[in-house]
Specification:
globular; alpha+beta; 33% helix; seven-stranded mixed sheet; six-stranded antiparallel sheet; 25 helices
């Protein structure tokens, strides 16, 4: 047997009832990991370890199994298929090397299948497909492949077809494979593996998991057509799940992406200043309900760690960044009704513990009413929560009638001001609040100079804003789709304490909301409706009555299919109505879609009875001080009393005088000399530039009706760096590139991260990929910089020229490159050019200043 150096993390995903867990059982059985083939309906499946899962016959919690193929050691992650537990599946996808998407042959592509596919596409996970239940009546292979291509996109290839047919299909998916195919050359396995890894090809196998048909072919495919992910040099890990074992010990599930994790290593995470640090007491390698202890875990392995009490799902450890917000959010809310005599605070603490484990569950404590509310995806999740509370804590709860989770946003930008100055306290905060596109959530930023407000106070303001769930002023619903930027503030040298800025910042948010136009949002479902054709007219009329939308209806035999979107309020009770008028033959699949402006906002606002001025937990008024005592100023009078003028919407004052004018002047003279040479080249190419020598002495006339100096504002500087030009000019990087170009790229990226952190510019690093066949191009976030890989046939200078042309009129743009012709083009677009030599001097100077600051702090 070959040395199994290839370690893979593979996840299996599917729409509910597609046979996902049955496939997992068959895979483990054929790989020799289990001796007995269990079944979901017999309640003895290897991976359905929870009693609730066995009772309901569905996967609720993601599970792990270990097995080996001829050349690989595979960690297999079985994920929930029901939409109610989609957040659990989302977190798991982020740690996968490859995914296996299971589709039911008789049912084909379902609505939730499309949601899973968009998640895999967003996370760029290479995907294999197993079309299951082919032993049952259905449309057949060709029809299913056509449906996959029509609803999910191109690239699906039947790897069970004959070689000639398979090669022809592969050639249509990837240009490199097409070149080899047209040249009459055999398709190289390494090229096919690369095409799969790039998501150009999606291998498909057909079979029946229950009858173990096609399972061996899928196992062989995972062994043959995969490659391990590159491991980082430094330690990194992604936390994707938190759970408890049978003894109540907290388990933190993570995938190691770089370095080595050893027993008793100290790990840390969390926000700056409020983070956690703990030792990894045990490293458990689970397979089903059993585990073995490991002394160390290497990249490509998944383990459960004990002792990490502060880690949360989605958190990145070491070199890894935190994951983004879930794609799907809860849309329903329920009140938790406790049994007689139960302590509400104890129950709240128990719910908080479960909340850590279930990313789709949100627990809200209403201090005013003394009530606990929960937000979740659906009624099945409600049953699971009820069972967990009873089993773990002996708490038998019920739930009030569920309601819809509305949200609020703003329609116009506004400046919010908060001031907090009771005796011996002082803080003032100015926040710019802007509407964002739907689905953006709340984003935070800082655009405030340190001479106005010290950096430590700025970070404290943002930290206090991030930990608070902000409520709107219409119904008190959660705020969303708003960008909040700190633009000004003031502290007192003697009297300011940390809590003062919390008070001022939260009051600034509320004051801004009171000053602007607010919008109530309601959730919508995406629906897929399958029903007898004779009932289609009734369904269309129902959707129209809900003010929903739908596309043209499809028909497959006697079944009509209707897809579209409609408000949750209309569709929530519709499954029972559908079952009635179709006599049980109709099927409705609902997936949370988006939040949109509420249709009957006025009625809902009136019914809520919410008065923002009486919300004592979220005050909009400010506190000022006079004659040794604090007094309250109403929110609409705060701007008349504020101590700071933010300058929002007006020209901002210039920055403080440069402490090193001599060095800056020398650099400027050097740039003038180079500009003179470039201008000669420019004029030789495009013709002489005519100048009026007396223009500077003539008075300027401002005839523009749209000109208003007060509207000008300082925008962040953009710095574009031509990556390969810099690498091959800087001596140290050039030497490194001769041995390993990837290492040179990585080192340049790390250098620029430090530079950006000091300069606070928007830094875009551009690498040529125009010679890479089929390269779609990408824009990635590496720590605090943007890294661009150009698409095929697009050079770095073409990308830079396009960007400078688009943003150079409104933003200050600098470009660092060694390409003289590129500098000429950039100069013509109005951007500032920076030679590779000048840029290196600037980078070296920044590093010296960083070291000096570190020495001062020490």
């Amino acid at each position: 047997m070959a040395d199994k150096t290839k370690r893979l993390v593979v996840g299996v995903l599917a729409h509910v009832d597609s046979g996902k867990t049955t496939l997992s059982e068959a895979m483990l059985y054929r790989a020799g990991a289990i001796r007995k083939l269990g079944r979901v309906d017999h309640r003895d499946a290897f991976l359905d370890t929870d009693s609730l899962e066995r009772a309901r016959g569905i996967t609720i919690f993601s599970k792990q199994a270990l097995f080996e193929t001829e050349n690989a050691r595979i960690t297999w992650l079985d994920t929930p298929g029901h939409v109610d537990f989609s957040a659990e599946a989302e977190r798991t996808v982020q740690v996968l090397d490859y995914a296996v998407l299971v589709i039911s042959g008789p049912d084909g592509v379902q609505s939730h299948t499309e949601t899973i596919w968009s998640l895999l596409r967003r996370c760029r996970v290479p995907t294999f497909l197993f079309i299951n239940k082919m032993d049952l009546p259905g449309p057949g292979r060709d029809a299913l492949l056509d449906q996959l291509r029509r609803r999910l996109g191109e690239g699906f290839v039947d790897f069970g077809a004959d070689e000639d047919q398979c090669n022809e299909a592969l050639a249509l998916c990837d240009e490199h494979l097409m070149d080899a195919y047209l040249a009459g050359e055999p398709l190289a396995e390494t090229d096919i593996v690369t095409a799969i890894a790039r998501r150009h090809v999606f291998p498909c196998w057909f079979g029946s998991a229950l009858k173990v048909d096609g399972v061996d072919a899928l196992l062989e495919g995972l062994d043959r057509w995969t490659r391990p992910a590159p491991a980082g040099e430094h330690f990194g890990a992604k936390v994707f799940k938190v759970s408890q074992d049978d003894q109540g010990a907290r388990l933190t599930w993570l995938r190691v992406t770089g370095g080595v994790l050893k027993v008793k290593d100290t790990l840390s995470g969390g926000p700056e200043g409020e983070g956690w640090s703990a030792k990894a007491d045990q490293l458990r390698l689970y397979s089903g309900a059993k585990y073995t202890l490991a002394n160390e875990v290497v990249p490509g392995q998944v383990c459960a760690v004990t002792g990490l009490t502060g880690a949360k799902p989605g958190e990145g450890l070491g070199a890894e960044r935190d994951a983004g917000d879930p794609l799907l959010e809860p849309v329903l809310t329920y009140q938790v009704i406790l049994p007689q005599g139960a302590d509400v605070h104890t129950a709240l603490a128990n719910l908080r513990r479960i909340e850590e484990e279930e990313p789709e569950l949100h627990v809200v404590w209403d201090e005013t009413l003394g009530q606990i509310h929960i937000r979740l995806m659906g009624e099945i999740q409600l049953e699971v929560l009820q069972s967990l509370l009873s089993r773990r804590f002996g708490l038998d709860v019920t739930f009030g009638e569920g309601g819809i989770l509305y949200k609020e946003t703003i329609a116009e930008a506004v400046e919010g001001v908060g001031h907090y100055e009771p005796l011996r306290h002082y803080a003032e905060v100015h926040l710019k609040m802007e509407p964002l596109p739907p689905g953006s959530g709340i984003q935070y930023d800082i655009d405030c100079r340190e001479e106005v407000l010290a950096r430590n106070w700025q970070r404290l303001v943002i930290a206090n804003l991030e930990e608070k769930e902000h409520r709107g002023i219409l119904t008190g619903a959660p705020l969303t789709d708003v960008k909040i930027t700190l633009i000004a503030g003031r502290a007192h040298l003697k009297h300011t304490e940390g809590g003062d800025f919390r008070q001022a910042a939260l009051r600034a948010v509320r004051q801004g909301l009171m000053m602007t136009k607010n919008v109530l949002l309601e959730p919508w479902y995406h629906f897929r409706l399958e029903l007898p054709a004779q009932n289609l007219g009734r369904a269309m009329n129902d959707i129209q009555q809900m003010e929903g939308t739908f596309g043209p209806a499809d028909q497959e035999g006697e079944i009509a299919i209707l897809e579209g979107s409609a408000p949750v309020s209309g569709l929530r009770g519709y499954p029972r109505e559908l079952a009635g008028y179709t006599h049980g033959r109709g099927r409705l699949t609902l997936t949370p879609d988006s939040y949109r402006p509420c249709r009957n906002a006025a009625d809902l606002i009136a019914a809520s009875g919410y008065d923002p001025e009486r919300d004592l937990e979220n005050p909009a008024d400010s506190v000022f001080c006079a004659h040794g005592a604090g007094y309250v100023v109403p929110w609409d009078k705060v701007r008349e009393h504020m101590h700071v003028e933010s300058g929002w919407g007006k020209a901002k004052p210039a920055r403080a005088e440069d402490p090193q004018p001599v060095r800056r002047a020398a650099a400027f003279r050097a740039s003038l000399e180079n500009d003179a040479e470039l201008m000669k080249i420019f004029e030789q190419t495009y013709g002489p530039i005519k100048r009026d020598p007396l223009a500077a002495f003539r008075p300027v006339k401002n005839d523009r009706p749209d000109f208003n100096a007060e509207q000008w504002k300082v925008l962040p500087e953009y710095l574009l760096v031509d990556g390969y030009n810099i690498i091959f000019v800087w001596d140290d990087l050039s030497a490194l590139a001769r041995d390993n170009l990837a290492s040179a790229r990585q080192k340049l990226m790390d250098i620029l991260c430090n530079y950006q952190g000091f300069k606070q510019c928007v830094l875009i690093l551009v690498f040529d990929a125009y010679r890479v066949p089929g390269s779609p191009g990408s824009i990635e976030q590496y720590h605090n910089i943007h890294v661009v890989y150009t698409r095929e046939a697009e050079t770095a200078d073409m990308f830079i020229e396009r960007v400078t042309h688009e943003i150079g009129r409104e933003r200050r743009v600098r470009v660092a490159t060694s390409d003289g012709m590129e500098q000429v083009i950039i100069l013509g677009h109005g951007a500032y050019r920076l030679s590779a030599r000048q840029f290196r001097e600037e980078v070296d100077e920044v590093e010296r200043e960083i070291r000096a600051l570190i020495r001062q702090e020490e």
